[in-house]
Write a structure and sequence with these properties.
0% strand; mainly alpha; single chain; Serine Threonine Protein Phosphatase 5, Tetratricopeptide repeat; 469 residues
């Protein structure tokens, strides 16, 4: 009858449900299956059969066993009528008090949200969580939905009693309501492994407040420190380092960029390479990437004026794109606009402190401005701090070459500085540098072209092409 959907059967179905309810209040089922009862109830409620609606609401709390009550709870919740919801609430009061908590009860609790249920739901959650039975693993969400602010505070005080899954779930809720303790709790999770620490990282990244970013930077520093004295990172250390580095690198916050730049200068090769990879991804995520590529193509085609216009468009579209700022600084330097070049570098240093390429360019522009000794000293300090960095070595060579070609340079200094530039190009090649075409065409190194070792340096860079660094 129910499957036919024929309204003519409504009186018969109503009588059948009425008879079953008489049995059910006494705990009897007469061999009827839950799905059969569910279908009959749905049939009647779809037709808004008022006598049946009234009877079902009235008898709902008395329906036993629970597996027969559960489908009715689900149907009445879907109806969403005030009288239906009131009947469900009364049934839940009894079910939760007795500890007869099913999935349907939990779903109803999430909708009706009564703080009186919180304690019992939490006890049920802990019992099943601690049972070790995967099929019984339930969510903390119904507890959190019912809890009052005071109950939430009490649960926070019981933080250590939750397992790592519970902490992750609870922390997501606390962050969503901006609970005063959530960042502190997240900081504690950052030292753990698994999902809970990843949850904390993601939440702090989404929050992106000064406090949250400082917490992320601190834990990344601790992870880097834990790798000291090792040649490479462990598999576990690599995973944690990659996740955190990717998050930190995604922010334009100067202190986040500073930390990534410090990592690029780290003595641990794995740390350096991880940070460089993430920093390199910044340009790939820029909305101005297409224009940046276009600018490079125009410059290579010797369309300098048009390239400079495009570069200005790049900076207007993405003023935080460091690559564009460095390019314009280089363009201005080679045009003889040294002060404007240095202004770009000053802004770049503010946006991305301790960036090796920025600092190496500052030294070079200082030499071009006539601050020769200061520029060379800055170049040497940078090289001493990162003797493996190709930017520091190459731009250091440019600084010494430009110093050597100045009119006021003595013959002795010229010879000494040219020799130093040659030595730095050799060191650059040893890092795996392979851009031999740029090396041969770089106007900053023109004074080296007559040096007897120059052709050998070009050849060494060419041989690096296609080789692993």
């Amino acid at each position: 009858m129910v499957r036919s959907g024929d309204d003519r059967w409504t009186p018969f179905v109503a009588a059948w449900v009425r008879d079953f309810l008489e049995l059910a209040v006494n705990g009897q089922t007469g061999g009827i299956q839950p799905l059969e009862f569910q279908g009959a109830v749905a049939f009647l409620l779809d037709r808004r059969h008022e006598p049946s609606q009234f009877l079902i609401r009235e008898r709902l709390s008395q329906i036993a066993p629970a597996k027969f009550q559960d489908p009715v709870l689900r149907i009445l919740l879907s109806q969403g009528q005030p009288l239906d919801l009131q009947a469900v609430r009364e049934a839940l009061n009894q079910r939760i008090e007795k500890g007869e908590i099913s999935v349907e009860v939990l779903q109803a609790a999430m909708i009706l949200k009564d703080p009186r249920w919180t304690e019992a739901l939490l006890a049920d959650y802990r019992q099943l969580r601690n049972s070790g039975r995967p099929d019984d693993q339930r969510s903390l969400q119904p507890v959190l939905a019912c809890a009052s602010p005071a109950q939430i505070d009490w649960m926070v005080s019981q933080w250590e009693r939750f397992n790592y899954q519970g902490r992750s779930e609870f922390l997501v809720y606390l962050a969503a309501v901006d609970h005063v303790e959530w960042r502190k709790l997240a900081a504690g999770l950052l030292s753990e492994t698994g999902n809970s620490s990843e949850t904390a990282i993601n939440l702090l990244s989404q929050d992106a407040s000064e406090e949250s970013l400082a917490l992320l930077r601190d834990v990344l520093r601790r992870q880097i420190a834990a790798l000291e004295g090792t040649k490479d990172a462990s598999a576990r250390g690599q995973s944690q380092l990659q996740v955190l580095t990717a998050q930190i690198a995604s922010f334009v916050h100067p202190e986040c960029r500073r930390l990534i730049n410090q990592m690029c200068r780290d003595s641990n090769k794995y740390v350096r390479e991880t940070a460089r990879e993430q920093r390199g991804n910044l340009a790939q995520r820029s909305p101005a990437l297409r224009l940046l590529v276009q600018e490079q193509q125009l410059r290579e085609a010797d369309s300098r004026d048009e390239a400079e216009k495009v570069l200005e468009d790049v900076l207007r579209m993405d003023p935080f794109l460091l690559e564009a700022r460095l390019r314009r600084s280089s363009v201005r330097m080679h045009a003889g606009n040294f002060d404007a070049s240095m202004e770009d570098l000053r802004l770049a240093a503010e946006m991305s402190p301790e960036h090796v390429e920025v600092e190496s360019m500052v030294a070079l522009v200082m030499v071009r401005q006539g601050q020769v000794n200061g520029g060379l000293e800055a170049a040497e300090r940078l090289i001493a701090s990162v003797p493996w960095d190709d930017y520091a070595l190459y731009n250091g060579a440019c600084s010494f070459a430009r110093a050597a070609e100045r009119a006021e340079t003595t013959a002795e200094d010229r010879t000494r500085w040219i020799d130093r530039a040659i030595a730095l190009i050799k060191a650059t090649n040893e890092t795996g540098f392979d851009d031999y075409k740029h090396l041969g065409e770089d106007v900053d190194l023109r004074i080296l072209h007559d040096h007897p070792e120059w052709s050998g340096l070009i050849e060494a860079a060419r041989k690096n092409e296609g080789q692993e660094p």
